[in-house]
Amino acid sequence: MAKLRAGVIGVGHLGQHHARLYASLQDSMLVGVVDQDSGRASLIARQYGAQTYDGLPDLLKHVDLVSIAVPTSAHYPVAKACLEAGKHVLVEKPIAVLPMEARELVELATINRCTLQVGHSERFNPIMQLMRPHIRRPVLFEGQRMSVYGERGTDVDVVLDLMIHDLDLVLSCNPGRVEEVRAAGLSVRSSTNDVANAYIQFESGSVASLVASRVSLKAMRQLRLFQPDGYLWMDFQSRQGVIGRRTPESGARPMVAVEEVHAGDDEPLRLQLESFLQAIRTQSCPVVSGEDGTAALELAHHVLSAIKTFGTRAI
């Protein structure tokens, strides 16, 4: 079976790893790359045995699929051009800046029979995959996602940059329709919110409390889920976790059996790209579909609207 021909659009911090993996995966071959920095594009192309192309239209003549790893503000126009050309698309999160743009991309993928996958990579984090079978009707979600300050990603609000990972994870647990969103945010270093706190209540009664910051002294990516029969704790950096299970009552108090787990060292991006290639081959719905990416983006905008209602404060 012929390998799928892959192209990478944007070979900066994230895109370089897409290029590396497409060049090494059994089911794909890296054909070419495009980047506004021609020197950077040439460097990555030479490193992985690919070609550089003068622009997007030229690249699209030679590939079956693309990864889009450009700044968020360019996700929509670049993905639109690729889908209109009939190419399968993996676009880094968020799928777009605006929900209306995301919905148009989903429609284009359907019309042109293209696979559209969104790069919510935490779905492929080994600790999340290990915990997935243990997730049963969570009542409370508590998420903390912190990073140290850097210029990368500051073209958008921290809600679209970081919190959207946890919004997608919460929605993937099927908590039901969103009933209420309350949120607050702060601008510290950039022109948008660098810190945000969101409280989301679902019609089912489930509640999510999420904090995101890109001005932290240290990085942290953790999620806790509390459910009727116990709780789960996940650390997406160390890939360690805890499974707590209620046991039959002993005397007056219910007991909790605690199991510490470690999920191993599989690279989430590799698992994500393998899943993307499999979805293309089998013409099946990707693990993180365009609809999933749109749902996370819509919820992110509910959070942003709630922050505006509360009032964004600069310090």
Describe the structure.
This protein is of the alpha/beta class and 315 residues long. It folds into two domains: 4-120, Rossmann fold, CATH 3.40.50.720; 123-268 and 298-314, 2-Layer Sandwich (Dihydrodipicolinate Reductase, domain 2), CATH 3.30.360. The protein contains nine helices and 15 strands. The protein has helices spanning 15-24, 38-47, 56-60, 75-84, 99-111, 126-131, 158-172, 268-282, 290-310, and strands at residues 4-9, 28-34, 51-52, 65-68, 88-92, 116-119, 140-146, 178-187, 195-202, 207-213, 220-227, 230-235, 240-250, 253-262, 313-314. Strands 14-13-12-11-7-10-9-8-15 form a nine-stranded mixed sheet. A six-stranded parallel sheet has the order 3-2-1-4-5-6, with helices on both faces. Helix 4 (75-84) runs parallel beside helix 5 (99-111). The chain is globular and about 65 Å long. The N and C termini lie far apart (58 Å). The model has no long low-confidence stretch (mean pLDDT 94).
Q: What key phrases describe this protein's structure?
A:
alpha/beta, Rossmann fold, nine-stranded mixed sheet, six-stranded parallel sheet, 9 helices
What's the helical proportion of residues?
Answer: 25-40%
Per CATH, which architecture of the largest domain? 2-Layer Sandwich
Which CATH top level class of the largest domain fits? Alpha Beta
The number of helical elements comes to 9
Radius of gyration: 20 Å
Q: Give the strand order of the largest sheet, numbering strands 1, 2, ... along the chain.
A: 14-13-12-11-7-10-9-8-15
Percent range for β-strand residues: 25-35%
Strand and helix order: EHEHEHEHEHEHEHEEEEEEEHHE
Strand element count:
15
Q: Which structural class should the secondary elements be placed in? A: alpha/beta
Biggest sheet statistics: 9 strands, mixed
Overall pLDDT level: 94
CATH superfamily of the largest domain: Dihydrodipicolinate Reductase, domain 2
Shape: globular
Q: Give the termini distance in whole angstroms.
A: 58 Å
Q: Point out poorly predicted stretches.
A: none
CATH topology of the largest domain: Dihydrodipicolinate Reductase, domain 2
Domain count: 2
